[in-house]
Predict the 3D structure of the following.
Amino acid sequence: MADTDDSSLFRESARERLAAREGFVLADLDPESTPGVDASKKRGEHALAEGSAVLDDLQVRMHANSLSGDRRSVLLVLQAMDSAGKGGIVSHVVGTVDPEGVAHTSFKKPTPEELSHDFLWRIRTALPAAGQIGVFDRSHYEDVLIGRVRELATPEVIEERYGLINEFEREISEAGISIVKVMLHISSDEQKARLGARLEREDKYWKYNPGDVDERLLWPAYQEAYQLAIRKTSTEVAPWFVVPANRKWYARVAVQQLLIETMRGFEQGWPPADYDIDLEKARLAAS
Amino acid sequence: MADTDDSSLFRESARERLAAREGFVLADLDPESTPGVDASKKRGEHALAEGSAVLDDLQVRMHANSLSGDRRSVLLVLQAMDSAGKGGIVSHVVGTVDPEGVAHTSFKKPTPEELSHDFLWRIRTALPAAGQIGVFDRSHYEDVLIGRVRELATPEVIEERYGLINEFEREISEAGISIVKVMLHISSDEQKARLGARLEREDKYWKYNPGDVDERLLWPAYQEAYQLAIRKTSTEVAPWFVVPANRKWYARVAVQQLLIETMRGFEQGWPPADYDIDLEKARLAAS
């Protein structure tokens, strides 16, 4: 049951459809679009609920196999402009997986301790254990996004980071971590509407930060930095997936499907018992 | 809506009903019972689903307030014999809260590094941040449970730990952490049935460990160690709650209700905006 793909709305592989290939142009991707899916919001939400059982099952299998020495894990990297829906992905896609199977890290402005190390130090300490789904809400990419736009390092240092990131990601993927890098792509108008909504409700005020508008004023520079990062760090082992995100239901279904396809690729069955089943039945009966 | 208590099955405070008071005798509590609740399994599962929205809302409020300097957090400590349902509490009670709001730690046999520190060292590093619900799957109590039963330290050292735990818990509760200590109480027969079920299904073999039967053979010694721990560490700031757990639905509803009551006690509204709302509306409109 959890092995069939019937519940998916995608008529083709989401990984194939959403990977940013050579020549990808961010500005040409419509944030309103729903690539690979032709369905209503209602059907999308239904598919999301069905997919959550599939994803949960795949994570439990991955965990079970990790107990017998399988080193595989998954790392979902989420990057986006403010209000694009990273939080919604965390709660609605990852949130349906058993908390024990999830390692979630939200990367904020680096602390003085973090700044005293190289930019990948805090990233390494947060990597998922075997059997887990790691989730990075923001990541090492901030160092070539806000880092570039706000000139937080010299151009040479920024430039060097793309290569360091590619090396790092190859290294951890060889160690068993399957990296799923997602950029949630919203339009400037959609962001304006979402930020505005936070100013209308008492229970949303806390989500608004005046700094969000400061960043918003740099929209073109951020789009350029994203385009560059996607071009320079889309590798064989860790391609970027760019997910149109004006429609929240689509973005959630798409990220869920990316995770499901990635983990199905592991082809993990249930590990055999590493003890004598009949003997244990007898010991238990006698206890 | 999230403020009403209509969805609860408890006709009295779960905290009041389940706290282990002076003179509490573990052996007198029936693991099949459902204290404070008279309902069917079906109604229990329905109430659990309704309560999850309430708990989620309370956590979001706690998080929102933490951004304005409120230091409060919650720490759910789960202790139990094997198969009593800790994992089910984590996935079905805590698992409905946004992963960003949860800090989950599963404590295993201490590593050499952990053993080179005092027994509370690894506990301190795992405490929840302000605004989070921390969950300990096993905890510092292992050091007076398996530690006592398996004589992993001298009797003097074990004896001293109860006092150290009480001091520690008072200290962290003064720092803003509300501790909810739960022992899930199952019967020996129920454990036998649950362990046996793991030996019957290929997809459950990985959950079984021959060591579980070794521990099971020490059942009376463990019950005695629990009784002692409950007696010596049920304090004003951190009482033990002993939850009958032969009926999984009851244990889940009860722990959910303990968390809800604890967090309702914070009486947190939505924090006011710490910026000028009209000014921000104008800035956003102009952006």
